[in-house]
Amino acid sequence: MKILTSMKTHFNIVGSCNGLLCLSDDLWGYRDHYYIWNPSIKKSVKLPEPIFIFRTHGPFDHTLGFGFDSVTNDYEVVRIVHTGFSTDKVPPDVEVFKLSTGVWQDITPVSPSCLFVPKTPGFYMNGACHWVASKRKGGESQNMIVLFDVHGETFWEMMVPDSLVRKFSGFFCEGFVLFVSNGSLCLADSSSGNDKTIDIWMIKEYGDPESWVKQFSISSRDISFNVGVVDEIFSLFNGGRQRQVAHFLVKPIASRENGKILWRADNGLLVSYDPVAEKIKNLGIHNANCLTYRNALYVNTYKMSLILLGKLTDNSAGDTCEDLSSLCKKEAKGGRKFHKGNTKRGLRVVSPLHISRLMYMSRMKAKRLRMIK
């Protein structure tokens, strides 16, 4: 897979569907390089330049979503852009990229009058991408959940639990994080105060705001843990022991079948929290120790697939070849499935640095094969 970015190091993972990963290198500045990548078969598509970019629209903030349209058997990337020097334009501009057409389409007329958290990708479930957003009413803002129906290309609003509906003077209500646990939409709320308490909510009936139920709360005494740090001076005077530094849970990433929840800690570590035993386990996996890239830690169940196989190759020019369009059409008409019959599933933890290493290895392998030929 060719990497034509200026950084050539880190990618943010927008999301994953059916064995495909959507990647972006927009964590810094106004880079607008996006890829849809199948790591199983080492095939990728580089998306063309979006419509709303710095060169034509000036400063902006944006967020992304990646989802699958099961009706048309197509994959879509939705890009929500707040343009302007204050980057708080409401409603934002919205564009959608479809894998079958290979072009960005402006769908701003259906844009909701909400402000989205910048560079915080929405997650895909039940045919829709989900984000935490805020809506301005008079001189105040109110937090909510916004959904984008991938097939219908429409936005919907979902209310958070009544006790979490707060009005504030700014645009953002910080401290809300969405994730999935046992197939249900969950919300982590740490916006109640400075006592470092995190409340975990789950919606029992998807789409019914009356069915939000608080699952448990994590108090300040539960969410800190120590990590050994190499400190030669400390070790010299303490029998070679490592200096212990306290860290805290910041963001839920995913849940496991045993009920434990995977969290990103403030130092970029991935840890597992057991709500029954109220214990934290350091999994020994960490992201780049940079504030921007810490937020990019991504965990999901990966399913191997053959999507993008055929004659499709890495499209570094950004144009979509005809094989891509015909691939989707054939699968939709003839019912052919490009997934392996006995797919392998497993929990994968991926960071931008890990993604870059995988792409580098793939690129080196391709060069060796060309040399052999």
From TrEMBL:
InterPro entries: F-box-assoc_dom_typ1, F-box-assoc_interact_dom, SCF_F-box_component. Residues 8-229 form the F-box associated beta-propeller type domain. It holds the Pfam family FBA_1. Transmembrane segments: none annotated. PANTHER family: BNACNNG10540D PROTEIN, F-BOX DOMAIN-CONTAINING PROTEIN. NCBIfam families: F_box_assoc_1 (TIGR01640). This is F-box protein At3g07870-like. It comes from Nicotiana tabacum (Common tobacco). The lineage of its organism: Eukaryota, Viridiplantae, Streptophyta, Embryophyta, Tracheophyta.
